[in-house]
Every structure is written in structure tokens, then in C-alpha cells.
Design goal:
Blueprint (H helix, E strand, L loop, with lengths): L3 H24 L5 H19 L28 H10 L4 E7 L5 E7 H9 L8 E5 L5 E2 L2 E2 L8 E6 L13 E14 L2 E6 L4 H9 L1
Parallel strand pairs: 1-7
Antiparallel strand pairs: 1-2, 3-6, 4-5, 6-7, 7-8
Helix pairs in contact: 1-2, 3-4
Length: 208
């Protein structure tokens, strides 16, 4: 059994090293102070509160409420077309869409921003943009595919606009996370639905 003293020591160590990493990221310009503070809130407060149903206040006075002078980030409700134009004017040429497979490998697809803007302009309702992936994408390792995954069919890796970030570690490349959706056909019509086995969709269900 783990003693309370060890738990306390592990918590202090986690807080210390998280602070070191996030401070370095802010100093290097990879994120703003508000973004770093939001990560701290989610990791050390909101995630546990939601996952374990602790019943703690959902909106206490937290770090990200402190105003900062850093550049604003495209969080919350955003104007997608305006955000893409801003990125393009700042010489952003590509958007990297990331996802995590079942081998815990971070994979990505890189799309020219001109193509992203074209997809958004052609969206009939809410702004949407993404890229098709084979269904084997979640279970590939060293050139082989797990028997649990089929190589027939495709998923859509759609941009999560709330995760879109300006270029940081790669000049001219913006960053975003992607949600996997499955193409479904019903009575001659086709559409998209959230993929149940997508790791990011699973995490969202747990948190919600």
C-alpha cells in the first residue's frame, strides 16, 4: 500500500516538474501564460474533479483568470475563416493535424492552409476541414496492422478548431488536434458520425 507521505511527495514532484516544463514553454514562446495556467488547472483540478465526481466547484478563481499581456489564443468561440486569414497573413503555410493511435504514437497529417481554406469555404453548415485516413491507421506498428483493425474503409480526421495554435516549434506550421469520424451510409445517403474507438473521443466522453 502506498503511504500518504509518498503520495504527498509524488504530488509535489509532479507540480515542480510541471512548472519547470511549462515555464520553459512560455519563455520559448510555445504558449502564453494563460494557456500554461489552463493546463495546470485541467491537470491538477478539473480532470480529477470530473473523472472522480468529487463535487468541487466547477468555476473557482483559478490561474487562467489572471490577465496577461501575452498574445491571445484561438480558444473559445472562434471565427474560423478570420483565424485562418490571420494565420496566412503571418506566413503560416501548413496546418498539422495530430492524432494518437492505440500504440500511443502521435501521428500527423500536414495540409496546406490554402486547401484548408478551400474546404471551409465549401462547407455547407459549420466550418469543417480534414483528411481521409485508412481504418488501419489506429493499429499500425512497424509496417504491420493489428488483426483488430481493418485495412478496408476510411475515417475522416477532422480539425478540432478549439485546439488550433499558431506556429511555434516549426516555422510556418500551425498545430491542431484532430477528431476521428466514421463515414456512414444509410438509405442511399451518406454522412459522418463520431468514431467510438477514437482515443480523443473516448477521453471526451470520460471527462464529460
Amino acid at each position: 500500500m502506498i503511504s500518504m507521505s509518498l503520495v504527498w511527495l509524488m504530488t509535489l514532484s509532479c507540480q515542480y516538474y510541471s512548472g519547470q516544463v511549462l515555464s520553459h514553454s512560455v519563455t520559448q514562446g510555445d504558449m502564453t501564460e494563460s494557456q500554461a495556467a489552463k493546463i495546470v488547472e485541467n491537470v491538477f483540478y478539473h480532470n480529477s474533479n470530473r473523472l472522480y465526481k468529487l463535487g468541487l466547484p466547477s468555476d473557482p478563481p483559478l490561474l487562467s483568470a489572471i490577465p496577461t499581456t501575452g498574445p491571445s489564443s484561438p480558444l473559445g468561440k472562434i471565427n474560423v475563416k478570420r483565424t485562418l486569414n490571420t494565420l496566412e497573413h503571418s506566413r503560416t503555410r501548413f496546418i498539422r493535424i495530430h492524432f494518437v493511435d492505440y500504440n500511443n504514437i502521435i501521428r500527423r497529417r500536414i495540409i496546406p492552409i490554402e486547401r484548408i481554406k478551400e474546404m471551409v469555404s465549401n462547407s455547407s453548415a459549420a466550418p469543417r476541414a480534414g483528411v481521409s485516413l485508412t481504418k488501419a491507421c489506429l493499429g499500425m506498428l512497424d509496417g504491420t496492422t493489428s488483426p483488430a483493425f481493418s485495412s478496408i474503409g476510411e475515417y475522416l480526421l477532422e480539425i478540432d478548431w478549439h485546439s488550433l495554435r499558431p506556429p511555434s516549434y516549426r516555422k510556418g506550421h500551425a498545430f491542431a488536434m484532430g477528431n476521428l469520424e466514421e463515414r456512414v451510409s444509410e438509405l442511399g445517403s451518406s454522412g459522418l458520425s463520431k468514431l467510438a474507438i477514437c482515443p480523443r473521443n473516448t477521453l471526451n466522453r470520460i471527462v464529460e
